[in-house]
């Protein structure tokens, strides 16, 4: 099922993704020839999904961390890229087309795919797919790693960055905003339903955070991609995984959020203005029900590992 010259694999075909065998992949870059790239890794179904400009252009089988060396879930940025690389921790094991996600050893790279999790925490890709992804990515790109096989239709809306209705005031006006820590590069925004907290990351470094108020519950992890900003506002696209009904199926165009899904997250107005001024196409938003703090009863969730430190990490069990 690997593509050959002149062919466009049917990513949208029913059962095409599920039918992939270990080492196989689908790649259709002409569906979205240009635009920012986001990658979602689903550990539960052992698949990697590559989106460009909010449209899925590639799907691949993977092999993630084996028991005792599980791949951490969360939001990461690509910190380093090497075509030829060897592991510093595991007997100089080759890691071709390596794209580093953490400084303590987690990366995407070409490797053996036996059909089940077998790595020491890295995300192994088919060699040819690793080459293609390496050529499509750049430093600072967002990679979301999740245990959820699906991203649900209903989620808090990225329209939170639109101006609030007249008369709305937030009680808690405290926030942190330090863009000087990382002045340029793509943004990643993480919202925790359990903590009622938002964190803004640039190039793997936290540059802002605030408490938020969320209308309704956060049921599952959801990801969104900012396609465009114009005089009508912010055009956020839902990044789907297989299993969704209707137009959200992988291979079809990602759908924008509906008006009914908007304005569910509220934050201090000064913070909203600062974030809104920093948004640009390619920004990724992750909304998760998990905590970004240690303690509690949730899953382990790492949010951006950079500069040999973890900015936020939950070790909930």
Total helical segments: 2
What sequence of helices (H) and strands (E) makes up the elements?
Answer: EEEEEEEEEHEEEEEEEEEHEEE
Overall mean pLDDT stands at 73
Low-confidence stretches: 1-10, 149-160, 165-171, 241-253, 294-317
Largest sheet geometry: 8 strands, mixed
Residues in helices, as a percent range: under 10%
In terms of structural class, how would the helical and strand content be classed? mainly beta
| Gap from first CA to last CA | 39 Å
- Placed side by side, the strands forming the largest sheet appear as 1-4-3-2-10-5-20-21
List the helices and strands and how they pair.
Layout: E1 25-27, E2 37-42, E3 47-52, E4 55-61, E5 74-77, E6 80-82, E7 98-100, E8 107-110, E9 123-125, H1 127-136, E10 142-146, E11 175-177, E12 187-192, E13 197-202, E14 205-211, E15 213-214, E16 222-230, E17 233-238, E18 265-266, H2 269-278, E19 284-288, E20 300-306, E21 309-315
Parallel strand pairs: 2-10, 5-20, 8-9, 12-19
Antiparallel strand pairs: 1-4, 2-3, 3-4, 5-10, 6-7, 7-8, 11-14, 12-13, 13-14, 15-18, 16-17, 16-19, 20-21
Protein model, in words:
With 317 residues, this protein is mainly β. The protein contains two helices and 21 strands. It has helices at residues 127-136, 269-278; strands spanning 25-27, 37-42, 47-52, 55-61, 74-77, 80-82, 98-100, 107-110, 123-125, 142-146, 175-177, 187-192, 197-202, 205-211, 213-214, 222-230, 233-238, 265-266, 284-288, 300-306, 309-315. The strands form four sheets. An eight-stranded mixed sheet has the order 1-4-3-2-10-5-20-21, covered by helices on one side. It has a seven-stranded mixed sheet with strand order 11-14-13-12-19-16-17, covered by helices on one side. It has a four-stranded mixed sheet with strand order 6-7-8-9, with helices on one face. The longest helix has 10 residues, at 127-136. The protein is globular and about 50 Å long. It starts with 24 loop residues before the first strand and ends with a strand. The model is unreliable at 1-10, 149-160, 165-171, 241-253 and 294-317 (pLDDT under 50).
């Amino acid at each position: 099922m690997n593509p050959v010259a002149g062919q466009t694999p049917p990513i949208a075909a029913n059962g095409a993704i599920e039918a992939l065998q270990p080492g196989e992949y689908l790649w259709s870059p002409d569906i979205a020839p240009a635009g920012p790239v986001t990658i979602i890794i689903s550990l539960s179904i052992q698949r990697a999904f590559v989106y460009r400009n909010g449209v899925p252009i590639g799907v691949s089988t993977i092999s993630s961390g084996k028991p005792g060396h599980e791949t951490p879930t969360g939001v990461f940025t690509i910190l380093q890229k090497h075509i030829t690389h060897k592991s510093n921790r595991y007997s100089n094991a080759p890691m071709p087309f390596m794209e580093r996600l953490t400084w303590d050893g987690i990366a995407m790279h070409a490797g053996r795919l036996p059909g089940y999790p077998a790595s020491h925490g890295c995300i192994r890709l088919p060699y040819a797919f690793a080459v293609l992804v390496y050529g499509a990515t750049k430093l600072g790109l967002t990679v979301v790693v999740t245990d959820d096989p699906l991203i649900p239709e209903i989620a808090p809306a990225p329209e939170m960055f639109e101006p609030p209705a007249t008369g709305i005031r937030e009680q808690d006006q405290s926030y942190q905003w330090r863009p000087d820590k990382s002045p340029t590069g793509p943004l990643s925004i993480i919202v925790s339903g359990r903590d009622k907290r938002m964190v803004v990351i640039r190039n793997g470094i936290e540059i802002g955070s605030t408490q938020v108020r969320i209308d309704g519950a956060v049921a599952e992890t959801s990801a969104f991609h900012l396609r465009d900003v114009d005089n009508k506002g912010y055009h956020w696209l839902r990044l789907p995984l297989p299993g969704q009904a209707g137009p959200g199926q992988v291979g079809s165009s990602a759908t924008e959020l509906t008006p009914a899904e908007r304005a569910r997250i509220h934050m201090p107005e000064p913070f909203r203005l600062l974030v809104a001024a920093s948004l640009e196409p390619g920004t990724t938003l992750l909304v998760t029900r998990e905590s970004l703090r240690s303690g509690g009863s949730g899953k382990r969730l790492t949010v951006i590992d950079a500069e040999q430190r973890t900015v936020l990490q939950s070790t909930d069990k």
